[in-house]
Fold this protein.
Amino acid sequence: MTTTYAPETFPRRWLPEGVELKTWDQIEPWYQKLLAMPVDTPEQVEAWLVASGELNAVVGQEGTARYVAMTCQTDDPAREAAYLEFVREVEPRLKPYLNDARNKFLDAPGRAGLPADRYHVYTRSLENRRALYREANIPRETRLAELEQQYQKAIGAMTVEFQGQERTLAQLSPFLESPDRDVRRQAWTLAAERRLVDRDQLEGLFDEMRKIRLEIAREAGFDDYVAYAYKNRERFDYGPEDAARFHEAIEKAVVPLASEIHKSHRSRLGVDSLRPWDLAADPLGRPPLRPFEDVERLAEGAEAVFRAVDPELGAQFAYMREHKLLDLANRKGKAPGGYQTTFEADRLPFIFMNAVGVDSDVRTLLHEGGHAFHTLASRGEPLAAYRESPLEFCEVASMSMELLGAGVADPFYADRSQSERSYRKLLEGIVTILPWIATVDAFQHWIYAHPEHTRDDRRAAWRGLVQRFGGDVDWSGLEDARDHSWHRQLHIFLYPFYYIEYGLAQLGALQVWKRSLTDRAGAVASYREALAVGGARPLPQLFEAAGARFAFDVETIAPLMATIGDELSRLAP
Ligand SMILES: [Zn+2]
């Protein structure tokens, strides 16, 4: 018998069923009512939290539904207008009310009687927000948003002429996988040279951004931007010294394995030195893997993988298929990329992606599936804020599923050598991305720890880091491109310091996976228990619930790399 899934429903406790909350005129009176509620006793505060969570969820779901509808069909003007109306008419007016609601909770006389442990994570976050908030920073943030938009515009406008057609740099990436080395070299070189044309503009934008960021930090009472950024990203459980330990551990425990992967890639490709345009090519010049023909097959196959990992997770995915909580196929008019989002009031996940029939589509669906299981696992949590987890742990949910799913019976590849090729690609990708994450993170620490630096100093710092973490890639004759290669990492421009999260989460996911090789049932059970905690506990405890350590030192990383090394040596090329 196959397991089925029937999700619990959550009747409203404050808002009347069926109340319409689509326009600001409909929404505002409810926030006024919320702010007028008494919060003098612990019971009143808890009732207020229920009301506030419910209202935020219903309004949030209105925005989410419009966003989903718009991304599923960007060429429908009505959907676009509906989404933009929400962004322009509702969101800005909502912000002051959310700010008042936060203060109402923090200043509530009844809060003192609440169980401190239960509300620790929630209160810590709100107190931090309030402590960082400065009215004088609002115009600075507006200016930053403009500069960030100029960066995106500059990158988006970059095109080159390749094989008789004008193409964006993103459209060049399939050519980097070509078995023909000349095609790869041309595509790579054109993209790198095109970026260099705008280097002064990009460096100028960045210099202005970091100057404003420093002003924002000083306004909020910090001496430097690093300390401010850690608080702003709610990094309560690790600091810059842990990041430095992570960089060292990557250098010692990961870079050697990455170099070995580069060496074997080079010898399989049969080239004298590994150039930047060789990295994405198949080492044996084979055509790309074709795991499925149409998205029905993709969904069916993914369900089989999830059922093999855990019958209940498989049943949850079957529920999502049945209730149209997936939009998987690439088609004209659909927004690019992939994401998992949550319909907050229904507490149900939705997966969006652009599948075209390649190996990475399977990985994307397993990844987003992990996020969806996280949403479903924590949906019974009464405090709305705890139905979301910190990013560092959300990505443990998704990245673990990529790894757990790669190790089970494969419905996508008839031939074992094909599924091993796919698995190898996943593991090698993990080993080679970690040093890049360390490079980007160490660079940002350097930038903001040296506020008086010149552009030449900055180039030298980046070059040093590429040498430290870059493995066996031969950049000779490409020094200019190498020294500016950080220009393409949008996080450095748009989301300062946001990137190491993926590295930390990957270490958690690798620990779940390593355990699954000898104790699959135990690893999956802890994984599911940890997902059910949502965001109710601090990060180290979330990792612990998943059976992993929240640590990024050599002692944690070296055994993970040793296991990957063992797996790689037994897998087909
Ligand atoms: Zn993710």
